[in-house]
Amino acid sequence: MEISGSRARLFACRDRTLIIERLRRSPLPIDYLSAIDYLKGFETIFPMLVDGHPFRTVWIPEEDPEIVRIIDQRRLPFAFILEDLKTTDDVATAIQDMWVRGAGCIGATTGFGMWLAVKEAALERDFDEALRRLADKLLSTRPTAMNLSWAIDRQCQAIGRVDGIPEKIEVARMTAQAIADEDATACRSIGEHGFGILKKIAETKKGEPVNVLTHCNAGWLAFVDHGSATAPIYAAHDKGIPVHVWVDETRPRNQGARLTAWELSKHGVAHTVIVDNAGGHLMRTGQVDLVITGTDRTTYTGDVCNKIGTYLKAVAANDCDLPFYVALPSSTFDWQVRDGLREVPIEERSSQEVSHVEGFLDGTETSIRILPEESASSNPAFDVTPARLITGLITERGVCDAGEESILDLFPEKR
Ligand code: MRU
């Protein structure tokens, strides 16, 4: 690749984060893939691309720096649509109705939502009361996701540290940006740590692909970039290790079939979508080498609360003696909760998500009923997998056992 002028100086810089940041901001329709090729020798994982362009899931657009922009995940994989969020109400709706979803993405969007909340509270007579009310509104949107309350707490602490409304607005903006940036960095590190696990398995496979089974979407759409469960997969793929992913469709909302499959396709990773009940059979017949999932909340004792159906995969993996890993940034740990089953609130979503299936017909979004009219349906959105069924947790600081001692060894400041 021939690179000249200012671009040459840009690419000559060995600080990849800086390079990527500059590429992101570049107004030029640059030959991004060539740049990626050029950088390949430097690091493991690259930012996620949509048709050659790097995207995050949530950001402040340069041309309109008073609002928040997101990828509307409800439309994927059939349409790639960006939405602008201008108020705290917009953010609350986007989280509650799952325009954005997934642990890290919920956290980052909440961080930006708190920035909008500070700007709105600044127009009210009682700033503190208004901010509390808006924060509560955000907090009530998704009860299970740990990153939501984590982002609100972090914003409240940062805002409380400065006086003056302009200062509070600025600190909230900077904190929101930091939450998003740190999420992307943490996921990149998760990829690097998880890569070691896949590499070891690959060494036993004589060039055959490593078969990973994953549930729901713990990919970059569920975070700001890279993803948690998918980060090691992208790292292995980018480094030339053959990987194949079994993608659980993940009823009722089909985040696996719609989002994980879309992400993996865009990145060129081999994958096959399966119905949720196929995993056990594939494990028993030797077609799975390991399972990696994400998590929406993990206790400091190692219990994992994740998308409904995760527990059954862990039971099957355990029965088949297969490694079952959970990948998470530390923002997803709940440092207060000891017993996941008893203490983590499980979100109950609309029964319509079970009674109906959504899809696209001739370019139009359609929802069809699949149950008898008289049948009731129930929709617990998460389940808890006990620590004893989990081989290890892949975090931004490294891999540890799913147990209190091992977790606290990695995060000694939480002792
Ligand atoms: O209900 P969602 O889609 O917000 O649930 C989140 C998930 O996709 C999964 O539970 C995921 O594995 C953990 S979040 C990275």
Strand content: 15-25%
Q: What ligand molecules are bound, each kind once?
A: 5-S-methyl-1-O-phosphono-5-thio-D-ribulose
CATH superfamily of the largest domain: Translation initiation factor eif-2b, domain 2
CATH level-1 class of the largest domain: Alpha Beta
Level-2 CATH architecture of the largest domain: 3-Layer(aba) Sandwich
Tally of structural domains: 2
- Going across the major beta sheet, what is the strand order? 8-7-6-9-12-17-18
Distance between the termini: 51 Å
Largest sheet: 7 strands, mixed
Q: Rounded to an integer, what's the Rg over CA atoms?
A: 21 Å
Gross morphology is globular
Q: Say what the CATH topology of the largest domain is.
A: Rossmann fold
What multimeric state do the chains show? single chain
What's the total helix number?
15
Q: What is the average of the pLDDT values? A: 90
Number of strands: 18
Helix/strand structural class = alpha/beta
Low-confidence stretches: 1-44
What's the structural blueprint in terms of helices and strands?
Blueprint: H1 5-12, H2 16-25, H3 32-39, E1 49-50, E2 53-54, E3 58-59, E4 68-71, E5 82-85, H4 88-96, H5 103-121, H6 127-139, H7 146-160, H8 165-203, E6 210-214, H9 231-238, E7 243-248, H10 255-267, E8 270-274, H11 279-284, E9 290-293, E10 297-299, E11 304-307, H12 310-319, E12 324-327, E13 333-334, H13 340-343, H14 352-355, E14 356-361, E15 364-369, E16 382-385, E17 392-395, E18 398-400, H15 404-410
Parallel strand pairs: 6-7, 6-9, 7-8, 9-12, 10-13, 12-17
Antiparallel strand pairs: 1-2, 3-4, 4-5, 10-11, 11-16, 14-15, 17-18
Helix pairs in contact: 4-5, 5-6, 5-7, 5-8, 7-8, 8-9
Bound molecules: 5-S-methyl-1-O-phosphono-5-thio-D-ribulose.
